[in-house]
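Translate structure to sequence.
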């Protein structure tokens, strides 16, 4: 049954439209987005699809093919931050954020279905938020530009769901383009679409989902964010983005014995520099040379930011020993996925090596797939 047919079965008439928004992989630039820094995600072919119709009676009905909740019914004038905790918080949070921004959204019937793996660090939450926001933006003719739509979705996640995340995932889902990675300056949301077609160059980027579930609303993400903000305050800057790479040593010295803050600052400043290096290498057509930069990024997340885990480290170490060009964890950390850059001819060997290492360690078998840079959110029908 198609998503539109399911909508009709649930709600008694055909949807006004069907939209899709993708999950993402981040190539480089981790935890820099709440430090006004640089990120470089690209959209996956995996999407969350929403069939949607407007309502005028203040009722919001939500249904997902992926959970067994049945139809959840809410009232748009009663939904409030932190009032629900399950999957419905994401679409309801978007309705709340739109209304709070002054947009007259008077209700909706929504049916969702997703192929974005959940808890895998691939932004299933952002896909859910962005598809809801785009559908309502178009149906209610709100005329919100994509970057601002992403901001509203981030607000829903921060205020309504209660996860203190940055702007990367929602912007990736809303703004990425087929065959490109998105170089985003999270300070002013300036974007550059960078051509990223590994297949044409005989390479592949593998995503290895460790199956270790992670969440952003628990304390560790927030602790890193608070530590970065403390670092910026101690250094007298608006955000760690303002610490230039060649001023890093001096900045670390000024932080004295604040050892934990020093490590966080070192990661953010070097990571912003790594994004700029990857952008330069890709623009120069020197794609293979990004491999070592990815490796440095992983070491920094593991040793300085301390958000890796044994399973992610095993993917990276095994893949590199088996001949990968570069590898690192991607996304928020504490589980989720790693990315592995390989020559296409080595993809199978590297995949097998990782699978065998997981089996030998007694870990749940990882899910491995090739990431194809795909289109951002769009209307399907
Ligand atoms: C998660 C967050 F949602 C993003 O905003 C970003 O901070 C990322 O972790 C780490 O780079 O995906």
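Result:
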């Amino acid at each position: 049954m198609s998503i539109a047919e399911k909508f009709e079965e649930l709600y008694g008439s055909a949807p006004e439209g069907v939209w899709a928004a993708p999950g993402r992989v981040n190539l480089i630039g981790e935890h820099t987005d709440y430090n006004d820094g640089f990120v470089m995600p690209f959209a996956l072919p995996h999407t969350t699809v929403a069939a949607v119709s407007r309502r005028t009676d203040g009722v919001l009905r939500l249904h997902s093919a992926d959970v067994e909740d049945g139809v959840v019914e809410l009232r748009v004038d009663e939904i409030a931050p932190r009032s629900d905790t399950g999957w419905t918080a994401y679409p309801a949070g978007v309705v709340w954020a739109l209304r709070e921004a002054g947009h007259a959204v008077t209700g909706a019937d929504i049916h969702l279905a997703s192929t974005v793996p959940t808890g895998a660090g691939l932004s299933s939450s952002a896909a859910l938020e962005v598809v809801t926001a785009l559908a309502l933006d178009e149906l209610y003719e709100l005329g919100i530009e994509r970057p601002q739509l992403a901001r509203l979705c981030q607000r829903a996640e921060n205020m309504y769901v209660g996860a203190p995340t940055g702007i990367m995932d929602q912007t990736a889902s809303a703004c990425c383009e087929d065959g490109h990675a998105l170089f985003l300056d999270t300070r002013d949301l300036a974007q550059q679409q960078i051509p990223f077609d590994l297949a044409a160059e005989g390479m592949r980027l593998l995503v290895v989902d460790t199956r270790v579930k992670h969440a952003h609303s628990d304390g560790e993400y927030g602790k890193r964010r608070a530590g970065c903000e403390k670092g910026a305050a101690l250094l007298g800057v608006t955000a760690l983005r303002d610490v230039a790479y060649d001023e890093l040593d001096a900045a670390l010295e000024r932080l004295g014995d604040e050892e934990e803050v020093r490590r966080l600052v070192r990661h953010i400043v070097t990571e912003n520099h790594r994004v700029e290096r990857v952008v330069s290498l890709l623009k120069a057509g020197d794609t293979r040379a990004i491999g070592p930069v990815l490796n440095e990024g992983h070491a920094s997340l593991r040793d300085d930011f301390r958000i890796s885990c044994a399973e992610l480290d095993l993917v990276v170490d095994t893949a590199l020993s088996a001949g990968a060009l570069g590898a690192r964890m991607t996304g928020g950390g504490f589980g989720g996925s790693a990315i592995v850059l390989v020559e296409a001819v080595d993809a199978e060997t590297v995949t097998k090596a990782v699978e065998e290492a997981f089996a030998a360690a007694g870990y749940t078998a990882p899910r491995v797939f090739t990431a194809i840079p795909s289109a951002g959110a769009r209307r399907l029908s």
